[in-house]
Design goal:
alpha/beta; 12 strands; globular
């Protein structure tokens, strides 16, 4: 039994310009103690998918068009706000990408951690304060007793993100959703925050959904990867599958557009030309077809199904059809993406 299972999720947003099909037929699962990374360009639907798990998609303008989100055998999409409040922060927590806008600037850091504990734990004021200081120490914030009394603006960017992690882990959740947690940080602090998350995940066995566009972070943190494009999951598999046996041209394009520090060969980075699809009116075929050098007529006219590449490795690409030449054959005779 999976800890979390998302099945055929579809989410639209009503706007003045029309209806945006932000998430289309997304399915994946997270097991206990597993780190699953969701990667893709900005606007691919990563954050909306994560927000739907937390019940944070505003309705309206958001519309759940179909699918289900099952957490510990409970259907989250059918829960009332009161029922979701019991799960948010206690069983499922989220770390947002910009802690300065996520933290309350008028409240002391310690009180913000305590707020989560008071909501979900039966503890005295003395116990809650002690626990809050312990959490600050656990996320490597120096002088936690004095930092407990400070406001967010008195923390550096890295310390604010650590405070957000402390708030998220306060009630020892089963699932932590980290939405680009290192985007606003410099490289050195990024490494420290990732190392902290890795250590805490091993200590608590908390499952993590890591949303990022940084494949280097994915290689360090995740066991499984889901690649999103145009509101859809175009490829899913283990880290080894995605990095060494990718079966979708978009995934290969992402890998070719980042530097490989371990390689001794001098290779130019290859950008993916073109723009993502218009989600007001998504193409009827493969969403990546207009940017794909290997696109065939069937790619333009028909949406590819999920092809099984290997054990738990799937890709939505017609090149994986038994009668298609295959992506490796195409790459051997064509110029790269």
């Amino acid at each position: 039994m999976h800890l979390l299972e998302v099945k055929n999720l579809a989410i639209n947003f009503k706007t003045y310009g029309g209806e945006v099909k932000a998430v289309r037929d997304v399915s994946f699962h997270v097991d206990e103690g597993e780190v699953v990374a969701i990667v893709g360009e900005s606007g691919s639907g990563k954050s909306v998918t994560a927000q739907s798990i937390m019940g944070l998609v505003p309705r309206p303008p958001g519309i759940i068009k179909g699918g289900s989100i099952i957490f510990k055998e409970q259907e989250l999409l059918h829960m009332t706000r009161k029922e979701m409040r019991k799960i948010k922060g206690s069983k499922i927590s989220m770390v947002f990408q910009d802690p300065m806008t996520s933290l309350n600037p008028t409240m002391r850091i310690g009180k913000q951690i305590e707020e989560n504990l008071f909501s979900h734990k039966k503890m005295s004021k003395k116990q809650v304060k002690k626990k809050a200081i312990e959490l600050l120490r656990q996320v490597d914030i120096p002088n936690p007793e004095s930092r407990y009394e400070q406001y967010p603006h008195q923390f550096s960017g890295g310390m604010r993100q650590r405070a957000m992690i402390a708030i998220a882990l306060a009630c020892e959740p089963d699932l932590l959703i980290a939405d680009e947690p290192t985007t606003a940080l410099d490289v050195t602090i990024q490494a420290q925050v990732l190392e902290l998350m890795r250590e805490l995940q091993k200590e608590t066995n908390t499952s993590i959904i890591l949303i990022t566009h940084d494949l280097g972070v994915v290689a360090e943190m995740a066991q499984s990867v889901a690649v999103m494009y145009g509101g859809m999951l175009v490829e899913k598999g283990t880290v080894n599958d995605i990095f060494h046996h990718s079966a979708h041209p978009y995934t290969r394009g992402l890998l070719k557009s980042i530097p490989n520090v371990e390689s001794t060969e001098k290779k130019k980075l290859v950008p993916i030309k073109g723009s993502p699809p218009d989600l007001f009116s998504p193409p009827k075929g493969c969403p990546f077809a207009p940017r794909c050098k290997y696109a065939m007529d069937v790619c333009i006219d028909h949406m590819p199904p999920e092809f099984e590449i290997g054990n738990n490795h799937t890709a939505r690409c017609w090149l994986n059809h038994t009668h298609a030449p295959g992506i490796d054959e195409f790459e051997s005779r064509s110029e790269p993406l």
